[in-house]
């Protein structure tokens, strides 16, 4: 034993240095390619944020909070703030769309996943929801234009209807996925206590799925807030505040971005950049609020 | 020490189990035990999953205020039979129960029988502790609340009583508002028992309630079962033969029958008797082989 130990310690130190081999060359190449891919993907995002911040910050925050409060100049070539009516319009349109699409979507998903499993009606509904996801937003706008706007005229609500149609399949899909993730043993535990199915869904399944439902719905809201095409048909492009949901032409940030950016006047183009930044901030803010909300629910368990 | 002692003492199944002493006092017969009121009466009970027959022709009676243990190798249908007692198969798509299953004289699968009503009277504790992601208090109050108890004072009384019955009150009384998921595995399982008791059931079904627990937590649950026996009728599925010998009054041994032609595997009841008899002098060779460890 002692002899053996001596030979081990007395021998030359082992050579543990890395040797260049084909394997290490391959590894380095692939790592390099992946890093490059990350940059390629991140570049557009960084560029967008950079240009929106770079050209929008000065416009939006000069004489703060003028830009966020004042009415839109009715003459496009006049320089100066604001985007107030568009902010209010976006909040109105998106808010009403959320109030329509989220309850309907959640209830629909509950039906599909809990009650209509495998029956013909639920298969039809799911198929339609999938088709609706694929409908281009401008077609949805056209549809609302025909069935609503032509009859009742421009209003924020028309835009809400169009956005709700776009959000509905997203909310249904997200909620159904979340319901699927609720562990089966929680339902069983509830049933075993003599709890009815409806009560089990209300008190066990939906609370367990709530964080996922909120973030899924939020994704839909954030996407809808930036939609332009369906709103062009239904909302109009007012320049003054219009707090009424059902009456008169309204406006929205996305509409103002479109209108002002395609204008030939520098003042209008500047306002478009400011509106773009405002929209990015607004979406970010909504996301943040919902994240905090869901985190608080999750931590209460 | 106490726990280890008991496990050691009943390590060999041939020895008399814990319930034996009381049996000797009350029953003069060698293998007998006075039969109390019948809680469940099974006649040719069969359970199907789709076209597959999982359990065939089980006929037995389960008696009031006793602990009845179901033992047998995996896939022999013991859990399947247990789950038919409170109609948990209703939730599984394709599952179907045939044959007679009477609960205190009423056909459980008869017309106009509500599964919800059945489960209020026949509670179930599962293999894996499955508390709701809610507070300890809300977990125990869940059942009474869904059965219409609303007043805060009533709920407080029920929660405390149930937690005391489940021997958990002293450990959690200062943190009833804390999440149930923060408890240890053994505590969670006792919480699940408290949650089941809170509904005020007549029968408590336990599906391998200790298989996820260490020996000390297991001993606590077993002590609890012996205490609860005076109030409830308990049916327990277990893979642990020592556990069956320690806690149960009667034992049913299930096994798997393989059809020679189709190679279909079906669970069957081999033998059902007083626990002391099953473990000391079984009537069927298959039971003896199983409990002496020659197979399964």
Task: Describe, in plain words, how this protein is organized in 3D.
The complex is a heterodimer of chains A (301) and B (296). With 301 residues, chain A is mainly alpha-helical. Chain A has a single domain, classed as MetI-like fold (Orthogonal Bundle), CATH 1.10.3720.10. In chain A, 76% of the residues lie in helices and 0% in strands. The longest helix of chain A has 40 residues. Chain A is flat. Chain A starts with a helix and ends with a helix. Chain B has 296 residues and is α/β, with parallel strands linked by helices. Chain B has a 6-stranded mixed β-sheet, with helices on both faces. A 4-stranded antiparallel β-sheet of chain B has the order 2-1-4-5, with helices on one face. Chains A and B meet through helix 8 and helix 9 of A and helix 4, helix 5 and helix 8 of B.
Question: Can you give me a brief rundown of this structure?
Answer:
The complex is a heterodimer of chains A (301) and B (296). Chain A has 301 residues and is mainly α.
The structural class of chain B is alpha/beta
Structural class of chain A: mainly alpha
End-to-end span of chain A in angstroms?
60 Å
Q: Which regions of chain B contain 5 or more consecutive residues with pLDDT less than 50?
A: 1-30
Largest interface: A-B, 20 and 30 residues
CATH superfamily of chain A: MetI-like
What is the beta-strand fraction of chain A? under 5%
Distance between the termini of chain B: 30 Å
Number of domains of chain A: 1
Shape label of chain A: flat
From the structure provided, what is the oligomeric state, counting identical versus distinct chains? heterodimer
Estimated radius of gyration of chain B: 19 Å
Radius of gyration of chain A: 28 Å
Number of helices of chain A: 12
Beta-strand segment tally of chain A: 0
SS strand fraction of chain B: 15-25%
Order of helices and strands of chain A: HHHHHHHHHHHH
CATH topology of chain A: MetI-like fold
DSSP summary, beta strand count of chain B: 10
Uncertain regions of chain A: pLDDT < 50 for 5+ in a row? none
């Amino acid at each position: 034993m002692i002899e053996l130990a001596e030979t081990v310690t007395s021998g030359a130190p082992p050579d543990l240095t890395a040797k260049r081999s084909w394997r290490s060359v391959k590894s380095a190449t692939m790592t390099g390619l992946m890093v490059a891919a990350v940059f390629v993907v991140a570049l557009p995002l960084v560029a967008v944020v950079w240009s929106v911040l770079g050209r929008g910050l000065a416009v939006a925050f000069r004489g703060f909070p003028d830009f966020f409060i004042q009415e839109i100049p009715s003459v496009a070539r006049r320089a100066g703030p604001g985007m107030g009516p568009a902010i209010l319009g976006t909040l109105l349109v998106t808010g009403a769309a959320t109030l329509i699409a989220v309850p309907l979507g959640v209830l629909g998903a509950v039906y599909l996943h809990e009650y209509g499993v495998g029956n013909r009606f639920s298969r039809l509904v799911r198929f339609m929801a999938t088709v609706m996801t694929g409908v281009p937003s401008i077609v949805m706008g056209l549809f609302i234009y025909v069935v609503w706007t032509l009859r009742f005229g421009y209003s924020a609500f028309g835009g809400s209807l169009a956005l709700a149609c776009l959000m509905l399949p997203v909310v249904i899909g997200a909620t159904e996925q979340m319901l699927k993730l609720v562990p089966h043993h929680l339902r069983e535990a509830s049933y075993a206590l003599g709890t009815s199915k409806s009560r089990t869904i209300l008190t066990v399944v939906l609370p367990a799925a709530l964080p996922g439902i909120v973030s899924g719905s939020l994704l839909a809201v954030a996407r809808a807030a930036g939609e332009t095409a369906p709103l062009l048909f239904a909302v109009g492009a007012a320049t003054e505040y219009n707090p009424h949901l059902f009456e008169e032409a309204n406006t929205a940030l996305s509409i103002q971005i479109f209108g002002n950016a395609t204008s030939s006047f520098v003042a209008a183009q500047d306002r478009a950049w400011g509106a773009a930044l405002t929209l990015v901030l607004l979406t970010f803010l909504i996301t943040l609020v919902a994240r905090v909300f869901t985190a608080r629910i999750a931590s209460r368990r | 020490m106490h726990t280890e002692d008991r496990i050691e003492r009943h390590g060999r199944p041939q020895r008399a189990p814990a319930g034996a002493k009381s049996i000797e006092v009350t029953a003069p017969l060698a293998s007998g035990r006075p039969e109390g009121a019948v809680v469940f009466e099974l006649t040719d009970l069969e359970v199907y999953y789709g076209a597959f027959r999982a359990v065939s022709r089980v006929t037995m009676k389960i008696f009031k205020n006793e602990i009845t243990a179901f033992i047998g190798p995996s896939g022999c249908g013991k859990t399947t039979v247990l789950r038919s007692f409170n109609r948990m198969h209703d939730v599984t798509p394709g599952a179907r129960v045939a044959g007679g299953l009477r609960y205190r004289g009423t056909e459980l699968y008869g017309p106009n029988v509500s599964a919800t009503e059945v489960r209020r009277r026949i509670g179930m504790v599962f293999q894996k502790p499955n508390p709701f992601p809610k507070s300890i208090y809300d977990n125990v109050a869940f059942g009474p609340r869904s059965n219409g108890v609303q007043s805060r004072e009533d709920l407080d009384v029920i929660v405390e009583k149930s937690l005391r019955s489940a021997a958990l009150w002293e450990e959690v009384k200062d943190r009833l508002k804390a999440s149930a998921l923060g408890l240890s595995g053994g505590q969670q399982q006792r919480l699940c028992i408290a949650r089941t008791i809170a509904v005020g059931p007549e029968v408590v079904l336990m599906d391998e309630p200790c298989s996820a627990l260490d020996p000390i937590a297991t001993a606590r649950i077993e002590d609890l079962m012996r205490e609860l026996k005076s109030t409830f009728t308990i049916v327990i599925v277990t893979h642990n033969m020592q556990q069956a010998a320690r806690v149960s009054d009667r034992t049913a041994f299930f096994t798997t029958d393989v059809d020679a032609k189709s190679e279909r595997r079906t669970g069957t009841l081999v033998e059902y008797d007083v626990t002391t008899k099953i473990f000391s002098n079984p009537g069927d060779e298959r039971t003896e082989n199983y409990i002496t460890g020659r197979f399964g």
